[in-house]
Amino acid sequence: MQGFAVGPFNTAYEQRIDFTALRRKRVERVRELMRQEGLQALLVWKDENVRYLTDLRAQQIAGKSSFLNGALLLEQDAPILFCSGGEVDRVRRTMPWISQVYPIPIMEDAGLIEAFIRDQLVPLLWDHGLSRARIGMDAGPMAMVHAITRHLPEVELTDGDAVMQRARRIKFPEEIAVLEEATAIADAVTAAAVAAVREGVRECEVAGEALRALLTLGGEYAHVVTPFVASGERMAPPNRFATDKLIRYGDVVFIDIGACWNGYYADVGRTVICGRPSPEQRRIFTAVYEALQACIESMRPGRTNEEAARAVREAARRHGLEDHLLSLFIGHGIGMGANEPPYIGEPSPGAPVIEFQPGMVFAVEPLIWVEGIRGGGGVRLEEMVLITERGPYVMSRAPFDERLLG
After folding, report:
1. For labelling alongside 86, which of 142, 298, 344, 406 has CA 20 to 30 A away?
2. 10 found inside a domain
């Protein structure tokens, strides 16, 4: 592990990321997990799973995730790609590792789905002797499930997303290198946003400067479709998208935009102050900062996500603020999924206890908010953390606002 972002370009003077090798490793890992689960084929539709298997960077239409592109992985041969007709010609010319690509419509209309299953998927499966196979699928509309059941009555359709989640959980060294580069971009995006914070600027203007930096540096997407810039009282409770609110003297300003590069996401968040903070704002910020550091310190191989969440709650409790933690997870896995399992501190029933393992990458993001504080009493801080044999390694480097540390 180099421990820094070496640069996003291909170069002749040093060996950087071998994406061909990485693509092969990912597919081989998924195939091995398929064998373990007794799957003869895997049909995926989630953006991150399609990209993990094929490296397709496709046009994204807001709100249509899991309806636009798909991939079929068999026990041998390259993944078969299903994508928009607008992508097919480009794929054929620029992605030689994909030997079979088929145009598909947006997978919503029942008639179009029926035709895809009948005219494309069924013949493919029959040609490969899979008319009675056990096939995993990660997502898809009920119309697709029903059509597969009708046209392939002897196929056993089962959960394929669990296989993909397991495959993506431990990152290869090449993936860590990509995440380093994505994190460097996310740090720069955060810096651009922080530099734009001043009295009389609107939240949406701060988000605009951040997105300008993101695209200028070759980033693909923000971590969230709705860039998160919230100032003053809009952080208590958190307003999780940028608005036209003016930033005023004494406002806390939270920035959470991040970056995606070559399909991998980095999620970095910072809270800064416009002007001078109040004692109560310092108290909240210090509690969140200490909670973040306590969580990171506990993220060592053999320790659990439950222990890490407990460390956050204990730090908040020391400041009398445990009851003010946001009722959301404290951290999440990250990679080709902007948010992916496993989670830290998920409050909903059914959240599994997992042990940290080398190669896992998390975005850790405790948030505490207190209502009724002039200039806002909401603070979140977020770091990118890689689990290594020696313990946690913080990938993000964006500075903290020392004016807010009590």
Report:
1. 142
2. no
pLDDT given for residue 212 in this prediction = 98
Q: Is the pLDDT of residue 34 over 90?
A: yes
Mean pLDDT of the chain: 96
- Would you list the DSSP string of 83-100? EEHHHHHHHHHH-TT---
Q: How is residue 322 annotated by DSSP?
A: G
| Dist CA 364 CA 28 (whole Å) | 30
User: What DSSP assignment string belongs to 97-136?
Assistant: T---EEEE--TTSHHHHHHHIIIIIHHHHHHTT-TT-EEE
For residues 161 and 270, state if they share a domain: no
**Mean per-residue pLDDT for 28-32?**
98
Give the C-alpha separation, 79 to 130, whole Å.
15
Q: Tokens 């530099």 identify what position? A: 195
pTM listed for this prediction: 0.96
What is the b/e burial string over 103-126, where b = at least 16 CB atoms within 10 angstroms of the residue's CB? ebeebeeeeebbebbeebbbebbe
Report whether 305 contacts 364 (CB < 8 A): no
Phi-psi region of 250 (alpha: psi -120 to 50; beta: other; left: phi over 0): left
* Position 178 in a domain: yes
The whole domain housing 211 covers 170-404
What mean pLDDT do residues 141-161 have? 96
